[in-house]
Each structure stands twice: as structure tokens, then as C-alpha cells.
Amino acid sequence: MKLYNSYNNRTEEFKPIEDNKVKMYVCGPTVYDYAHLGHARCYITWDVLYRYLKFKGYDVTYCRNVTDVDDKILKKADKEGKTPTEVSQYWYKQCENSMKSLNTLKPDIEPFATKTLGEMISMVKDLINKGYAYEVNGDVYFRVKKFSKYGSLSGQPIDKLESGARIEVGEQKEDPLDFALWKRDEKFGYNSPWGVGRPGWHIECSAMSRKYLGKTIDIHAGGADLIFPHHENEIAQSECANGCKFVNYWLHNGFVTINKEKMSKSLGNFLTIDDLLKKYDSNTIRFFILTNHYRMPVEFSDEALTSAQAGVKRLMNAKRTELNESLDITQTEEYKNFTDAMDDDLNTSKALAVLFELTNKANKGEKNAFTVLYKLATTLGFTFYKQELTQDELNNALHHVSEKLGKDFSSMDELIAFRKEARENKNWEIADKIRFALDEVNIVLKDSKDKTLIERK
């Protein structure tokens, strides 16, 4: 298996530190607002890597942190008259629900920054004792120029960084390049050897990865926007505190763009996952993301999502047969083609092509084709159960039936009750009109003993 290492810009053979075990860390969300499509791209990408490593037989420990103490959280708490804990807990729950809706697996370890303060303080003390950090009036800064490899990940030499560095009002740095490890904050802070304060953003991930995965880890992943300064600073403080290499493989996913601009909250051009899920199901969003190579930027558009929706429909409509649980799929040609694609730096677009080949074979009635399709598709995180229709799909169906019958329906429950009454009165013409109208928008009503189910065709 080969992965592209952002540290040296080379595709390298993946070799874990310890036999078959993989220690994997992903920078998690700062919980102060809704998760957006950019988050979906990041967490779906690394969810696929996590699933695929397990599929290959690795014993994976996946750690993804939660930043629940941050300037943005404090600003929101101030604005809304709430405590930072109330803000972060509320938005963590929203983010967790969004991730669950996207069918991303929960990490093995999900540490919160506020629960790891002791480890952060310990690491900052180590850096001060070794001369890599210094305290000034309750603030603690890292001496960037004492770490000779600084800038290696982002490819930015010190002299270039120096030209753009500034000391902000209130900062008391020795050098403009130095960054905060601990910030004085008497309003929202915690006790520390340097007075009441709170951690800098970068020290959080270094302390959490060291606590839960060890001093040197196999894989550290995240969005390309984190390369500088976040990941650059993580390397500096971790390697100086621990005295050893921090990460063997750095992996970064590309941006999601809208009109060629990176999607972000600061630009105000973001689409929340919850809003997207009102229009498209999780399989469609995942397909849209996996059609593109994870390192490349991906341009969002309704046309691209509609195309992804059609692709998902092909996969989901594959002729289904009973799963052959005893089948060794590693002996099939499609397994080899799938793993060849995924072993080539997670080439998911080629892996999807294998799924379509299997769909064609399943539709032709080839034995075991659906079993192989199911096992490979679920490795990419696709689900084969019937998912609930989006609100947009339901509204469109109601509008279409209302037009065809010349009668307004305010809800699906009302339509189903009207249809039930027509059937009980043996008014088959009305019942058929409803069935034909729903058929035109790819929806079918299925009657069971206790209720009527609404499903996609």
C-alpha cells in the first residue's frame, strides 16, 4: 500500500511502526457552529482510510480530537450569554449527529481538549525546561528558531516566514515567529503554573496524540488548510518535547471550492451538512467526494451532486441476491482490482469503477457478484439499506401528485390516508393515479400490516 506523504511530497510504501498495528490521528472539529461540506470531505476521506486499513487486516487505533476551548467558542459564548461549556457541548452534539448521518464511523478515541489540560501543561513545562519555550506575564511562547527543521512540512524557509511575521498588540514575544503555547485568560481560563489561562490551539493535538497514541505515530491526517501553521507547529513542539520523530506519514485532503474559492465559515460561502442532507442522501454526498482524488480540490455544484446521485442509484439498484458469507472475496478478480486502486494512494475513483463493473455483472445474474459488490462498497462506507427520503423529495412528490389529481395535499400522511380511503371504497382509478404520479418521481408506497412505507424506487 502506497500513500502520498505531504512531509516530503513523495508517494511511499506504507510500513507501520509496530507490525500490524496502525496509530492514526486526525484533527477534529472546533465545536462552535454547524459542520459543513468541507468537514464532510475531510472526515469522509479519513473514514474511508480507517475502513480500508481495517479491511486490509490492520489493527487500527483511530484518534480524532474535539477542540472545545478556542477563541471562536469564547466569542460565541460571550455573544449568546452562555458559558463556553454550554456552547461547545451543544455544537459537539450537532456535529456528532451530522457525522452519524454521513455514516462515518466513530473514532476509537475522541478526546476533548478541556479533559486533557494536565497533559498540555506537562508538555509546555517540558518545553520550558528544555529551553524551547518561555513565559512572559502569564503567556507562554515557543521559540521557533530553536527548531532547525521548522518550515519543512509547509516548504517555507525561515527567511520567507520572517518577512510576513508580526507581533500583535498585547503580545510580548522574543521573536515575531514565536507562537503561543499557553494564553493568559483570567475570564475563561484554567489554573496553571503561569497563572490562569488556556492552551494555544496547536499544543492540544500534540498533547492528545502523545497521551493516546504515543510519542511517534504512523499517520497524522487533516485538511490541507492545516499544514501551516497548525501541523508545522505540532511537529516543532512535539519533536522538541519528546526528543524523537513525531509522525511517519502526513496525509492531507484538498479543499472544497465554490466558484473556485475555498469553502469556509470565514468567507460565508459554506453549505452545512444538515442542509445538504435535506436534498441529497449520505451515499450521494460520499460518492461525490470519492469521485475525486482526496488530495485534489473539489468544486461543489448541484450538477456534480446530481451526477453523483445518478451513480449511487446505479449501485443501489444492482440486482440483489442473498449474500454468500462463506465466499472468500480475496480470490476474485474484482477484489484485486479494487485493492490495486486503493493501494495506489487511495484512488477511490478507480475503486468506484470496479463497483460499477460488479453492478453490471450482478444485473446479468452472475453468481456472487452482488456479494463482492456489497463487501467492497461497504468498505468505502456506502449503505445498501433504504434511506429516508429528503424533505425536498417529499415536497416534490406531494406537489406532483397534487397537480396530477387536482387536489392539494399538505403532507404525505394526508396523501396516504386519501389513498387508503380510495382503496377501501374500491376507487381503483384514484389509487392508480396516485401510484402513477409517484412512479414518475421515482417513489413507491409499500403497504405492510401496520403502516405504509415511502421508499425510492
Brief overview:
This protein is 45% helix and 15% strand.
Present the secondary structure layout.
Elements: E1 2-5, E2 10-13, E3 21-26, H1 37-55, E4 59-64, H2 71-80, H3 84-101, H4 117-129, E5 133-136, E6 139-142, H5 158-164, E7 179-184, E8 197-199, H6 201-213, E9 217-223, H7 227-242, E10 247-253, E11 256-258, E12 261-262, H8 273-277, H9 282-290, E13 298-299, H10 302-316, H11 333-343, H12 348-363, H13 369-379, H14 391-405, H15 412-424, H16 428-440, E14 443-447, E15 452-456
Parallel strand pairs: 3-4, 3-9, 9-10, 11-13
Antiparallel strand pairs: 1-2, 5-6, 6-7, 7-8, 11-12, 14-15
CATH topology of the largest domain: Rossmann fold
- The number of helical runs is 16
According to CATH, the homologous superfamily of the largest domain is HUPs
CATH hierarchy, class of the largest domain? Alpha Beta
Report the C-alpha radius of gyration, rounded.
26 Å
- Low-confidence blocks of residues: none
| Helix fraction bin | 40-55%
Structural class: alpha/beta
Mean pLDDT: 93
Number of domains: 3
